[in-house]
Amino acid sequence: MQKLLPRLVWVAAGLFAATASLHAQAAKKQLKVGFAQTGAESAWRTANSESMKSEAAKRGIDLKFSDGQGKQENQIRAVRSFITQGVDAIVIAPIVETGWDPVLRDAKRAKIPVILTDRTIKTEDESLFACFIGSDFYEEGRMAADWLAKKTSGKGRIVELQGTPGSAPANERRKAFGDAIAKYPGLKIIDSQSGNFERSTGKVVMEALLKKHGRTIEIVYAHNDDMALGAIQAIEAAGLKPGKDIIIVSIDAIKEAVQAVVDGKINCTVECNPLFGPKVYDTIAKLVAGEKVPKKAFNKDELFDSTNAAAVIAKRQY
Ligand code: GZL
């Protein structure tokens, strides 16, 4: 028995060391993350994709990036492929709010956590996603409306350039703005069309609105800066001065729009920060380690107008 004891101790020590190194390897195992991005419709989206890609590279995360090219079916196909690949986590920026339950049920069955970023979804079963990280679109629409009411003393004829039909930002920015201006009977939306968050479409829609309403248009409310910048091209082509003849209120605060505020062509842009990478991967690290995370995490957004744009333009990151 005495001879056997030292050998048993050695075996036990060896087993312990082997398990410890397995744990260490597991901890070092490269994370595989699937990201189903909406598309590449705006400068905001480009900055959002860049943040997710560069942060993954910095952290040594194996990011499977899929560009949905503006179609929900492409995003759903990408999620199914991530499930087949057995990724550690799935990130989705859902282009529209509905139609997600079936593919999210498949991810849940595969025990892969889903993180919704940027845009929310409508579902009866919130257990289908681990958490949402993004901006409060309703607050952005309210901030834009309140700023406009002060600027115009609650009077003016507005044309609205809406974002992608059925998307959370378009739905909530439209509802919030409408709810807020209801307090000012002198502020009226005389027309509202979708520019799909795209600069070129924003220009075309604004050309049509100018043809239809002419100089009766006093204000443009654009759901994003790309459409506002497209509208500016149409307004200038019509011989009018954007920011003076027509007040322009927008959302995103991309650097080009903040510069337009400095130049007096956009009067106000409400920030919607796209630089999600660090927060998303911190959250995934917690989920993979079995830690709880908040169901909803909102980014802090601020507003830029002639009083503060010049002071921040140099340090704007996107
Ligand atoms: C908002 C995001 C919107 C941006 C647009 O979080 O979903 O989509 O406001 C982008 O610029 O196209």
Provide an overview of this structure.
The chain has about 325 residues and is of the alpha/beta class. It folds into 2 domains: about 30-135 and about 275-300, Rossmann fold (3-Layer(aba) Sandwich); about 135-270, Rossmann fold (3-Layer(aba) Sandwich). It is built from 11 helices and 12 strands. The protein has helices at about 5-30, 45-60, 70-85, 100-110, 135-150, 170-180, 200-215, 225-235, 255-260, 275-290, 310, and strands at about 30-35, 60-65, 90, 115, 130-135, 155-160, 185-195, 220, 245-250, 270, 295-300, 305. A 6-stranded parallel β-sheet has the order 2-1-3-4-5-11, sandwiched between helices. A 6-stranded mixed β-sheet has the order 7-6-8-9-10-12, with helices on both faces. The model has no long low-confidence stretch (mean pLDDT about 95). Bound molecules: beta-D-galactofuranose. Beta-D-galactofuranose binds near residues 134 and 197.
Short account of what is shown:
It is built from 11 helices and 12 strands. It has 318 residues and is α/β, with parallel strands linked by helices.
Question: Helix fraction?
Answer: 40-55%
Measured distance between first and last alpha carbons:
72 Å
Strand order of the largest sheet: 2-1-3-4-5-11
Which fold name fills CATH's third level, the topology of the largest domain? Rossmann fold
Question: What is the CATH homologous superfamily assignment of the largest domain?
Answer: Response regulator
**Helix/strand class:** alpha/beta
CATH architecture identity of the largest domain: 3-Layer(aba) Sandwich
